[in-house]
Amino acid sequence: MKKRSLVLATVLGLTTIVSADTLKDAFKKGTVQGGLKSFYISRTYDWESGFGKNPSKYTRDGLSFGGYLGYQTASYYGFDAGATFYTTNKVDNKSDNTLKNDNTLFGADGRSYSVLGEAYISYTLANTNIRVGRQSINTPFAAPNNFRMLPNTFEGVVVKNSDIADTKFELGHITRVQTNGFANSVPVPNNVLNPNDAMTRLSLLYGFGPGYKVGEFESIADVYLGQNNKKNTAGMTYLSTTYTGFDGIKLEIWDQYIHDIMNIIVAKVSYKGRLSVFNTFASMFYTKQDNVGDNLLGKAFNTAGDDKDVDASQCGAMLKASLNNGFGIDLRYVNTPASQGSVLDGGIINALGGANPFIISQGALHANLGDTSSILLGVNYNLKHLTGVDILAMLKYFEYDIGKYNGYQSGYEWETKEFDFDLVYQVRSKFKLQARGSFTKDWLDLGGTKKLSFDEYRLIAYYKF
Fold this sequence. Notes:
Elements: H1 23-28, E1 31-47, E2 57-72, E3 79-90, E4 113-125, E5 128-135, E6 153-161, E7 167-178, H2 198-206, E8 217-219, H3 220-225, E9 236-243, E10 249-258, E11 262-275, E12 278-291, H4 296-300, E13 311-322, E14 327-336, E15 372-382, H5 384-387, E16 391-402, E17 414-428, E18 431-446, E19 450-464
Antiparallel strand pairs: 1-2, 1-19, 2-3, 3-4, 4-5, 5-6, 6-7, 7-8, 7-9, 9-10, 10-11, 11-12, 12-13, 13-14, 14-15, 15-16, 16-17, 17-18, 18-19
């Protein structure tokens, strides 16, 4: 029997599948992969008096331990199956003062949670793979978003094909999403879509949607439209083509069709190679969002007797360059123009994760706000070249110039600035430690009298096996 192989797309790695001659051998030759993670976060909030917060300055924190454990059978006549279990567990005591609890590492109400995030059957024939069930996908507007403890995962069917030289196709249909605890950073009251509520608007700009339920698989329609939604939709269908036939160049086109809500087109071109003495990565993208079908989101945002259109666009460019001595730079720019009167005034709508914009800082995801231009200026240096110890030091500066048609707090304009400093110590090939400090000034500024700034610190340990 010829040996067959399957590429397992997991959150943290790739595993080659060994073929088996019997069903018993398929389980015997299966592979186990996993990871452990510990995460500590502490954020100090500084609200100015206009918000009426009491106290106006306080610190919240959280400490968790968890990870994932997965198993995949060997291939049996082209078929294989797999499952991955995820867990995050609260280590520190929960404070009676809710202001002091950082719930972004955990589930609802700051509790530990576990979930069977992946459970699938797949079939491989020549250059085509079909996977059905719970799985990880990574698209511009549906992705793991593993910014805290656990990733988003999805339920549906995904087909991948590479019959044509230098070309990869991916076709997927997704019906449900399991959202991770990072969504708790934007608590939407009762998970009900209310266009007049700032948290509803922010949830759609920050990648969660008002109807998310952490650690539970929810329908695509409910996540976008809230738990008060009465409409059923077909979910999301997407298609992508990636071409790598030119030396060092990658061309990508994505179409993500969220039935009866919107269609999203993303075009991207990237270059990776050596230019003179520089190791270089450069990329540009363009995104366009338009309502489709019954325009359910536009109807939900009807506050003045007329349904609103989904009409948003975004473009960006980035350049990363490094020298062999360990020194590197990171330059990025993103522009999201206003579309006054549309849903979120032209802000980029996203309820399923995805890190399509090139600029995502620790404290702010403001690049998706409408009428906003964003920049990132970064430098990094690997101390291994001086000390022999593999420690990467990174310093990044972010600036968001937010106009009055931003979709989150339209009518106000302000400027958010942030500095991030990271140290990443690669202890062993599968063991990594990370420390980060982030300092965000004027995350929100409503007319100069209502302001929010914060400082945040993180300690993270990762181990893969």
